[in-house]
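Researcher: Let's try something more involved. This one mixes different molecule types, so please make sure each is placed in the same coordinate frame as the others.
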Amino acid sequence: MVIGTGIYSMVRWGYRVSIDFTGGTEVTYGIGEEFVDTISKEDIEAGLKSVNATYQSHEYPDDTSLVVRVSDMDEQSEPQFREALAKRTSAQLSLLRLNVVGPVIGQEAIQKTLIAVGLGIMAILGYIFFAFKRASFAFAAVVALLHDLLVVLGMYSLVGHFFGAQLDTLFVTGLLTTLTFSTHDTIVIFDKIREYRKSHPHESIETLSDMAVSATMARSINNSLTIVFMLVALVLLGGSSIRFFAVALLMGTLTGVYSSPFVAAPVMMWIEKWRK
Amino acid sequence: MVALALGGLIWINLPSRIPLQFTLGDIAVDTSIGSPVLSWQDGSGQQFTKKFETKFGLDLQGGSHFVFEADTSKLNASDVEDAISSTRNIIERRVNLFGVAEPSIQVLRSGQTYRISVDLPGVKDHQEAINLIGQTAQLVFKEEGELDPSIPISIATQSAIFRLTKDTGLTGKDVRKAQVTFNSENAEPSVQLSFNDEGASKFADITKRNVGKLVGIFLDADLLTAPVVQTEILDGTAIITGQFTVESAKSLAVSINSGALPVPIQLVQSETVGPSLGARDVSLSLFAGVVGLVCVILFMIIYYGRLGLIASVGLLLYGLITHGLFRAIPVVLTLPGIAGFILSIGMAVDSNILIFERIKEELRLGKPHQTAVRIGFGKAMDAIKDANVTTLIVAFILFNPLNWEFLPQFGLVKGFALTLAIGVITSLFTGVFITRRLLKVFYTRS
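Model: All components are placed in one shared frame. Result:
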């Protein structure tokens, strides 16, 4: 269901793709609190006219700053735009951050990030196969990974639609990291199954994985709880620039806890049974 | 031994200066303590200083980051590497003129595309920086002219750079090339300049009016060399002699030859961050980290009791060791890096939880305390090892230590991967070895 909602959101609303991937210019201005929500799209477009740039979006990430995203504005023309905007709105604008990404760089970033994600998944798969010497384990772990990937991607699209989270390189980093958490949990369960297999050689694989899942549940939940504590603290109290990064990590952690016992273990069982 | 190690650890983690003033009976203490500064000399008398300070990345302390793409289309394939590396060096020299504390200039290769990334911590005026880096450096020749009246005469006459104030009209355009030559008598290295026709006639005029005086060769505002003119030179070649070593002669020749960047560069990416933005986010994130840490410790103690207390001690040690490592290596902390650190605190207890659950399991089977601890530890190790290796693999891919061109090379992602990897390795150490010691001492005895 979660995946369904996520995919619906992905298809319906897509993502707010960051300039990391599309190229463009993002400027953050410090503004007085009284100006929050007063500067409109029209104001910005009027300011952009002086530098021949195109408006993309703007937002107020917190109560002292304004973020403006545009295309075709380079470093040299930013002061001119700032002046024009300040004149029109009589707001004091101080430049906090200016980020300009060329379109080629964005294209390349997409490619390289995809390769990194692919390589990461392959490496995890390879390692599990190496550690457990069973293809069914590795395959099941990867199915769980893909499940997590879909959940996080889908949910993030929702967060993007409703809260303005952007798909950027940090998100991809967070995604890869949560994939490793998910694998942590899966490995702990598989490790238990491996152990039970030795101590109870006559039990069926269902019973073994059942025992393993219940035995590791406390650990799995406790460990995720400690991570969740840290992440919730970061989401609620950390600064605005890493908030959505922490949100992505949080979603990944939660789905990782779920996917190991309820996706990885059953998939592994099916494969084992299907083989016989 | 343990106390010593712990003392050292705390020392490294101290803020750089804490004033210490108190009176103890008759003794008045007025001093300050802070993190250590090591300083030593190597054989050649070179002075090294190592400060244990936390270093912040551009996103936190403010500064500018640029990526320039080099246009190598007009070069022969065999010359590209050389041209890029000398471009890098020229950019480095220009940046040094800017007086930035720790600039970082790197060549990034991506297929046939070469890019040069420039990090300038603390530089807020990105326009000036872009102009400085991207400009075409000018080689100019100057002769002695009027002294700047604002500089005391005694200083001005001593120093060539103050005496050489008059432009001669001779510039890098007039130089055909510079090369290292060796004196036929004593084999001393010198630098030979050859001018084109126009340059040769200009140079003849200049040397004619300046026999016995200095003529300075400047690259941008940098005085490269100021030889004394021995005789009038008419044939368009000048030999600069002096106290050159082969290396210094070579580098002068390179500097003169490379007055202009050997390849045109174009700005393709830039990021400028004001310092205030980062400072606010650091304090917010650190506060969040502390709140999270307290929650984790409370949870561990409530759920695991005495075991949880031991894990918490291990966790605090973990924090101290990791932060100490960040300072000692040193790791440049970015905001995602701090997030990685905070995240790793949550993960650090993972090994402990695995171990404790195993110990509980053994206890439930009715094994005596000491045996349960020993067996529980042994059984948990497999899972701990396998689980952490996967995280390390992913951290490796994200950090991309070999700078593979098919993988991302973004600073922020790297920062996160590095702190995550250090966190995982340290947590293995504290979660396994230190907890084991603590368990032995405080848990099995009762």
